[in-house]
Every structure is written in structure tokens, then in C-alpha cells.
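pls ignore typos typing on phone
uridine-5'-diphosphate + seq
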Amino acid sequence: MNIAVIGGAGYIGSHAVKLLVERGHRVIAIDNLGMGHRAAVHPKAKLVVLDCANVARLAAVFMTEKIEAVMHFAASAYVDESVADPRKYYRNNVANTIGMLDAMHLAGIKKLVFSSTCATYGEPEKVPITEDMPQRPISPYGQSKLMVEHILLDVARAENLAFAAPRYFNVAGAALDGTIGEDHRPETHLLPIVLQVAMGRRPSMEIFGTDYPTPDGTCVRDYIHVWDLAEAHLVLLENLQPGRGLFYNLGVGRGYSVREVIDACRAVTGKDIATRQVARRPGDPPALFASPEGMARDFHWKAKITDLHVIVESAWRWFQAHPNGYQ
Ligand code: UDP
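k done
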């Protein structure tokens, strides 16, 4: 297929580009390079530097490149920032996605995989989280993604769009061949921050909250390897149905606490990682992990990398080989 990957130079998008190329697809990565990195785009993919807010140009690219399906990763994704600057989040994540849908409509494209998030569930009543649980986001970020889920459902019904909106849990790790990895600026995610301490680039890291109602008092999250996540996108793309939306959790189905993540990093790197215990970060639910049964039941798909140490090893390889990321 001819597939456009919007946000194809970003962390998750670049892994999706690589996977699609390796599985024989023709890939056009579209990215404004605001957060993404040119060097992250697989050499066999074509990079078009373009802001997806430019609907006319986006539609022209879709048509020129004979795009048959779109994967849309471009989004703002910092929860804290979304609270401080909600307009940015509704503009980038909602308004620009509507523009992207206009461009798809102009080009007659009917297949879409759109990145959603477990943040749409807010503070769930129970874990593991199944797809039918209530979605009550507690941040503008989660709200913006849920709004798009609703918009997509209406557009699918009206225009026979076939779409999937996988809801990501905590995406981590780097391509197993070491070629691409994570390079966020600023970095806010737990695993890269811990590994930056291991590399001596930060003196210590902060543990946000040690008084949660969890076994060791720190937050529990479900860490899924970025390559598994990319593969799940392809599975969803291959199973799209006209006029319908597919909503699936993408997680491993087990939770690790912040302390367990730090311990795994100590074990993999052999480094002593200095930590400081600080107050909770606002908006962090105590425990989030997926029920992965939906993907297993309907598509016989499960994440292959279930050991946190393997995820950490892949990220550690990337950081050691690229101490300055893509710079
Ligand atoms: N976390 C932490 N210190 C950090 C960064 C994150 O203790 O410097 C915790 C955070 O409170 C959360 C978990 O690690 O419980 C994962 O956070 P991250 O920002 O990686 O992902 P999120 O769960 O917010 O999507």
C-alpha cells in the first residue's frame, strides 16, 4: 500500500515508518519537524516536510503520492502543558486532525489509523482497563484525543471512513537494531529520564509521589515496546472496516511501578541511579494498565516484548550509541 505517516519523524511515527517499509509498503512520512527528526525517517521512506495544518498542500501530497491509507501520529502530548495551554492542544490535536480529515476527503482516502491514548479513561474505576470502560479524561490532552474519537465515529458513519483509534499505554524502548529511538525535547518520560541519569547526563531523578495506594507507593504503568505498538497499527490497518471504528487498548497487560522501572534500569545498565522522592505530579492516576484481551480476541495479536528488561535494554542501546539523540 501507499501509506502516509503523519508525524513520521517523531518517536512513535518513525518506528511505524520503519516497520511499514520493512513489511514492503511504500511510505510517505509527513512531518513539520517541529518535534520530529529528519534522521529518524527510514531512508527508504520519502519525507515531506509539511505542517498538516496546511490542508490544501496536504491534500495535494495525498493525491500526488496516490496515498491509500493514513496513519496520524502528529500531536501535542504533554499532559502538564495541556493544562497550562489548552488552546494549543485543541488546535493541534483536534482542529488540525479535522483539517487532516478534510485533506483525506479531498483525496478520496478512506482508511485511517489515529493515535489515541489511555488518558481518555482518566482515573479508571478498576484495572486492568478494558475498552468498554467509561472515558472521563482529566486533562485537556486526554479530552482532545477523546473528542477526535467521537469526531471520527461521526465521519465514519457519514462518509464510510474505515478507522482505528488505538489507545496507547506507556510507549517505551527503541528499535531493536539500534537505528532509531527516543529523542524528546524536553524529555518528560520516565524511562529516558532514568537512563539519562545512568548516562551521567542528569545527577538524579525525581520520583513523583511515594504515597500512592500501590504495593510500593509509586505509580504503576503498563510499558509497551514501541515496535510492538507499531506492529499493532499495521494489524489494525489490515482489519479496518468501512463505516466503522476500531478501538483497542495497546498495552502489555501488566503494570510496573516507578521503582520497578528504576530497578530494571539499574539491573540493565549496572549503574547506580540517584533518586529523590518528591510530591505527586498533578493528574497522575495511581495505577493504569491495559487489558490486552481485545487485540488478542479479535486479531490474535499480543505484544511480543513482555519483559521490561528487554524494553530497557533496547532504550539503553540507543542512548549509549546516540548520547545526543539525533543531533
Ligand atoms: N515519573 C516520575 N519521575 C519522572 C517522570 C515520570 O516519577 O521524572 C512517573 C510519573 O509520575 C508516572 C510514571 O513515571 O507515574 C510514568 O510517567 P511518564 O511521564 O513516563 O508517562 P505517563 O504515565 O505520564 O504517560
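DSSP finds ten helices and 16 strands in the chain. Residues 182 and 197 are 15 Å apart (CA to CA). more later
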